[in-house]
Amino acid sequence: MIGYEVSEGVARITLRRPEKRNAVSDALLAALAGAVARAQSEARALVIAGEGPAFCAGLDLSEHRAREAAEVFWHSRGWHAALGSIARGRIPAIAAIHGACVGGGLELAAACHLRVADASAFFALPEGSRGIFVGGGATVRVARLVGASRMADMMLTGRVVDASTAERWGLVNHLAGPGEAPGTALETAAKAAAVPALTTLGILEALPRIQDMASEDGLFVESLVAALAQTGPEARERLAAFLDRGQGKVRG
Ligand code: 1HE
């Protein structure tokens, strides 16, 4: 149910349940978590894509039907653990989105650090109309990306958001050409993989935590991370490369 390969430091994880639109069964969630754990030690960035016509149709509703309340609670906590291993992982994760990215599929995409989508991508939270609730982190991660008001709109009205609107809302970071979301995501991942380790640590570990802090605490942590990154060997080398040899010029 999961494809896994590493090439040039970038792991590519593919949801492979196309006949069910990559609906996330318990087995698929476990396999995904296993692949993510493997990538943390084998790669410097990872891309998550979906095989077939959809990125991911969310929770496998056929398994959900028979669950008791406590089971649903622990099932949701299982999603938090699995998707948390992406969001709180040590390497940047990029979602490559095409077709449906709905419910838990959107929660999976939101757990990634960046999202690339082509024009076929569409986003929805059908939990509202199904009389259930999100359980894979959307109230925190999707609401942070688009704002609680837009998320409430998606849940209350079943609004389906297209790729360009999602980009305008800040949900999608990069728009790709038709069928090119995985390729663009791999290129994006290669760039992210080349960022030095201490800077990546600041972006993945400090930046999201600082959003939960009081401003003065956030600024204090920012300075600590700057002190750590700017005195590292890679920073010295790269600053010298620019100052002495003009390497790494920012081009508009
Ligand atoms: C599924 C699922 C699923 C498809 N669970 N089986 N997610 C949803 O409410 C979305 C439900 N799915 C859809 O709205 C549509 O299937 C799609 C827009 C994603 C794709 O449409 P389409 O026309 O390409 O495919 P299809 O014909 O609807 O589906 C193909 C098969 O996949 C079909 O099974 P088949 O045996 O009849 O061929 C569908 O039943 C099956 N399928 N989606 C189970 N989700 C941590 S909590 C998160 C809470 C949620 O994620 S709730 C939102 C769940």
Q: SSE layout and pairings?
A:
Blueprint: E1 2-7, E2 10-15, H1 26-42, E3 45-50, H2 61-64, H3 69-87, E4 93-97, E5 100-102, H4 104-111, E6 114-118, E7 122-124, H5 127-130, H6 138-146, H7 148-157, E8 161-162, H8 163-169, E9 174-176, H9 181-193, H10 197-210, H11 215-230, H12 233-245
Parallel strand pairs: 2-3, 3-4, 4-6, 5-7, 6-9
Antiparallel strand pairs: 1-2, 7-8
Bound molecules: 3-methylmercaptopropionate-CoA (MMPA-CoA).
3-methylmercaptopropionate-CoA (MMPA-CoA) (1HE) binds at residues 20-21, 23, 53-54, 57-62, 76, 79, 100, 102-104, 126-127, 130, 132, 134-136.
Describe the structure.
The chain is 53% helix and 15% strand. The chain is of the alpha/beta class and 252 residues long. A hairpin with a 2-residue loop joins strand 1 and strand 2. The longest helix is centred in the N-terminal third of the chain and has 19 residues. The chain is globular. The site of 3-methylmercaptopropionate-CoA (MMPA-CoA) has 24 residues, from helix 2, helix 3, strand 5 and helix 5. 3-methylmercaptopropionate-CoA (MMPA-CoA) binds next to helix 2, helix 3, strand 5 and helix 5.
Q: Radius of gyration over alpha carbons? A: 19 Å
The proportion of strand residues reads: 15-25%
Overall 3D form: globular
Query: Helical amount among residues, as a percent range?
Result: 40-55%
- What is the topology, as strand order, of the major beta sheet? 1-2-3-4-6-9
Q: SS-based structural class?
A: alpha/beta
Measured distance between first and last alpha carbons: 42 Å
Distinct helical segment count = 12
Low-confidence stretches: none
Give the SSE string: EEHEHHEEHEEHHHEHEHHHH
Mean pLDDT: 96
Bound molecules: 3-methylmercaptopropionate-CoA (MMPA-CoA)
- How many runs of DSSP E, i.e. beta strands? 9
